[in-house]
Design brief:
The structure is a homodimer of 259-residue chains. Chain A is of the alpha/beta class. The first copy, chain A, contains 9 helices and 14 strands. In chain A, strand 3 and strand 4 (61-62) form a beta hairpin.
């Protein structure tokens, strides 16, 4: 059984060319099979501003009208995805950049909400794990842009955290999977202003204690609940930490492990 | 030995949503393995205009500065590529959209010219046919955007006709390959204003006669010379015709066959 790393990187690392290069240097030295999922960063918002396409965010989700879908498809699946792929190739890590539409990897449906029209935003129905298994068997690093499709020709803007979560769960059926969320903190912190106050471990047993004693910042609770759900669904563990600490995280030296 | 169709479609079909849908309907019914290479159409030029990035064309090639490379990567590898993939999925043809950087499929180098600086434009060094063989073995239609890389992290804007030509040659080492250039005419015409004046067949034997008697329009000569070179390099045949005639072309009923 292989130990696969499913790594999600967010905007804080994508928007900073030097940090991205350091991160890619680091992961290129990791022997494990890797699946990399990237978010969008500020580029899509910047392009929308330049193109005068008004943007609306609701609960951190981008309302995606037709013009915005075009922008995120260009930025995520085009510019960001292909630059990461080329940078991994330069590091002799053979990468292949795809979306959920490619190889029919991720089927989704347009989100229906009783009061909010999110537009072309996808809720995931199914991840075809065999697509990733085949790519990993050829020693590729799949680099996944957060775009899916509905099977009838419609592309859908889809949350990258959710994609990472669903991919990790799908791969866990036949593999040991660590899901690594890289964000702008060194882990789940007791004190958000103190990067040394990392909570090293969260489990189904201690989570209620951490919640009721307000030790976890409320903004982190959905992330942790999703991580616990992933673990309950078979993911070996989920680690939250800083992208630039990725080697130490993989070595178990830092980050918050949810298991 | 499989008979693979390498099909290149240009801007005339990409810019026309109805025509593109008809074309994709048609190829979805073809039993042969297909590799589809697409050009860019007018979208990149339109986006450059909106973003006020001046564009310069020299001999039909787009001079590609850093901002233009960003635009073509977004439009070709993002918007156009993923829309074609999603449309093929809707037709139950399992497609995977990639560039030459993905899976290290096409290595190129930045074009050096004694007097013209083309910018980030690639000349192809090598096509890894095994990448395409592996994708075709999984019943995927590889959909190729005309972007390559140099192996050091630099993406390069690369002519789609040339990519189609090099892919066809690389696949011919182990397969029977028909290279199909879809453009805005029904074939090589004796009279460019008469779509019925198709020259059905061009060979190394009759090309000189056609040239010296001015039967071939001078603008077609580079295309035909490249096609003859492809045939000399092992491609079974090259057919020029209209995208909407693709089924008749594959059936040998129309188009100009170069063999």
């Amino acid at each position: 059984m292989q130990h696969i790393l499913v790594i999600k990187i967010g905007g804080n690392i994508i928007d900073d060319a030097n940090a991205l290069h350091q991160f890619l240097d680091a992961i290129s030295s990791i022997a494990h099979p890797i699946v990399l999922i990237h978010g969008g960063g500020k580029l899509a918002t910047q392009l929308a501003t330049t193109l005068q396409v008004p943007q609306q965010m609701i609960n951190g989700r981008r309302v995606t009208d037709e013009e915005t879908l075009k922008i995120v498809t260009m930025v995520y699946a085009g510019y960001i995805n292909k630059n990461i792929v080329a940078q991994l190739q330069a590091r002799k890590r053979n990468a292949i950049g795809i979306t959920g539409a490619d190889a029919n990897m991720i089927l989704a449906h347009k989100r229906i909400h009783s009061s909010i029209d999110y537009g072309f935003v996808g809720n995931i129905d199914h991840v075809q794990a065999n697509v990733l298994h085949n790519l990993l068997a050829q020693q590729y690093v799949p680099v996944i842009a957060p775009i899916t499709h509905d099977g009838t020709g419609q592309l859908l803007n889809t949350n990258a955290d959710t994609i990472a979560n669903e991919i990790a769960k799908a791969l866990s059926a036949t593999n040991k999977v660590t899901l690594l969320y890289c964000f702008d903190k060194k882990g789940v912190l007791k004190d958000v202003d103190d990067e040394t106050s990392i909570i090293p471990s969260i489990t189904q047993e201690n989570i209620e204690h951490l919640k009721t004693n307000n030790i976890i910042h409320t903004g982190m609770i959905p992330k942790i609940d999703n991580a616990l759900a992933a673990v309950a669904a078979g993911v070996h563990n989920v680690v939250l930490g800083h992208a630039l600490d990725v080697l130490d995280i993989v070595a178990g030296k830092t980050g918050t492990v949810i298991h």
